[in-house]
Protein 1
Amino acid sequence: MMFQTLRRIGFVDQPQLEKFKKIILMMRAVVLNEVKNDRRKESLRETSGEHSYSFHIADQGSDCNEHEKAYLLASMGGDILEDLDEALDRINDGSYAHCVKCGKEIGLKRLEAIPYARLCIACKSSEEKKAV
Ligand SMILES: [Zn+2]
């Protein structure tokens, strides 16, 4: 499917596609950076013992909103990274913005909220019901 050229995908036109791609790449960078930071903090905690606790708190205090947002992303762990990579693949192969399960279009509103959404709302909610 890689031989398909990038083109309008359903209701998502080229500029929108580029916008979503940019957002996904940005989220990916944030997650990767945050994972790196967490590893760094953990190794600091291990090597410097009790003092690292106060370091950790002080670090959290700086630009809280940005950090919280990034932390929220990172706390979703490897899953979100996979989702982001898959979304980029789907932009490239032309299946982006379509539910991977039923093939229906994923609404623009949903994509704006979750640019890496794989499922339409109907499939997502039925999957969640199954998971519970
Ligand atoms: Zn669906």
Protein 2
Amino acid sequence: MAVRGGIDLGGTKIQAIVVEEGTQPLGANRIPTPKQGGPPAVAEAIADALRAAALEAGMQPSDLAGVGVGSPGSIDNEAGTVTRALNVSPEWSGSFPLRDELRSRLDGAAIRLGNDVRVGTLAEVRLGAGRDRGSLIGVFWGTGVGSGVILDGKPWGGRGAAGEIGHMVVRLGGRTCTCGRQGCVEAYAGRKAMELRARKMVDHGSHTKLFEIMEERGREQLTSGIWARALEHEDKMATHLIDQAVAALAAGIASAVNLLDVEAVVIGGGLGTRLGEPYVERIRNEMQPHLFRDDRPPEVVGSALGDLGGALGAALLVG
Ligand SMILES: [Zn+2]
């Protein structure tokens, strides 16, 4: 394959890679997602990260066959826009011409846009834990909870919005979700929702090391690494909130499996990757009582591509 660029645009970080084939990048760069300046600042940061990754590979952006970008929000490939990427920037509520903005910053390189979780799932099917699977759900457990669905070997996008496993209802009248509805998986398992919950519990007098660890690390939000650290310290609040997250994820994923009867489920995303196999095993076990065909569960595995899956999948957008 030609040398391509891949960008994983997330709420916390921007991961850029330059890759030829397989899963080993020729160059890589990761920077925090800018919290100020809205979509233009994000476009500038993406271009910086990609230039740095290309430099590490001994190349210029213009040497690349193209650059794929996996982004949250609604993607319009014809218009080259990303709309409502609010997990990336609170100012990204409207439509932003990301393709053209990147092309002009990257010496005219060809830019392809894709949905972040769908490209992440594609990467797992082509290069990772889902290889040779005809049907699969890729679950991305991070700031939010998203999924990509592969049926008969092809991505299933529905009418453009398929895969919103984070907004499957696991508790009628339950906790308010970041989407404004109630009882969604993401209301319990999304890192953003979990942080809001933790802050509320602290306001009501509960104790936790979560925010101490955050300050020690000079962060402004609870990253996956901070959650993992608090769990290692057996922090009560973190353990409680993660237990609830696992239960909600397991119920939501099992319900999706009852509907689609896929061969495999791949668990990735910032938290899924950081917490790793022990938590994949917990999700697998907690799915079991919810499975209609409990004698024949799907294979539930951790992402094989980890942190780089999104960027590798984005690079696959460049044919
Ligand atoms: Zn929701």
